[in-house]
Design a protein that fits this description.
Elements: H1 2-12, H2 16-35, E1 42-46, H3 52-60, E2 65-70, H4 73-86, E3 91-96, E4 109-115, H5 123-136, E5 137-148, H6 153-165, H7 175-185, E6 189-197, E7 200-207
Parallel strand pairs: 1-2, 1-4, 2-3, 4-5
Antiparallel strand pairs: 5-7, 6-7
Helix pairs in contact: 3-4, 5-7
Bound molecules: S-adenosylmethionine.
Amino acid sequence: MARKTQQVYDALAPVYPVSSYLFHADAHRAALRQSEVRDGMNILEVATGSGELFRKLVELNPTGRTVGIDLSHQMAARSQRMARKHFPTSASACYTASGCRLPLADHSFDRIFSCLMLELLDAPARRLALMEFRRVLRPGGRATLVLIGEDSRVFNWLFRRATRTIPAFWGPQTEGAVLQLFDEIGFRIVASQRLRQNGYPSFILTIE
Ligand SMILES: C[S@@+](CC[C@H](N)C(=O)[O-])C[C@H]1O[C@@H](n2cnc3c(N)ncnc32)[C@H](O)[C@@H]1O
C-alpha cells in the first residue's frame, strides 16, 4: 500500500496544489493559528504534499529550522524547490522518508504538523507514526494534525465510495481510531477546531 501511495502521489505532484488550494488552505491556516508557531523554533512537517503549508512554516520561522518529510519523492522535491525559491536563505530542507520511521533525533522538534496523512496508513502504521511524533517532539512540544472531518453525513457517504476507487489516494476516514491512540501514546488534546472548505470537512487537532 505504501508503495502504491508513493506512486500515486509522485504522479499527482504537479497538479496537487489545485486540490490543496480548493480544499485544504483554510485548514492549513487554522493549524498555524492553533499551533502557536514562533520564529526560532525547530519545526517538522510530516507529509508536506506539494508544500503549501511548508512554505508558510518557512516564512514564519526565518531564524529557526524547518524540516519537511514526504513518502513521495516528487512531493518532497517540489516542497523543497518552492521553499528555496521564495526563501533562499532559510534553514529549511525536505526529505523523502516515511512518517512511520523518521530519520530524526529524539526530542528535537518544538512543533510537528501533519495534514491528511494518517488516513493513508493502516492501523499499525498509524500507531507507529504517532509514536514517532512522540519520540521526536521535545518535552512541552506540540503536534498539530489535520484529519478529514467525519461530521458531514453526505460527505462521509461520498467519501466511502471514493476510498473504494483509489484507496492509495483517498484513505478511509480515521478520526475515531486516531483519538483512541492518544492516551496509549501519551498525548492530550490542547485545542481543536472543525471547519469546511468547499464542502470538504477538516478536523484540526493540537496535541502535546
Ligand atoms: C492527501 S496528501 C496531503 C498533503 C498535504 N499534507 C496537504 O495538507 O495538502 C497526503 C500526503 O501524504 C504523503 N504520505 C502518505 N503516506 C506517507 C507516509 N507514510 N510518510 C510520509 N508521507 C506520506 C503522500 O505522499 C502525500 O503527499
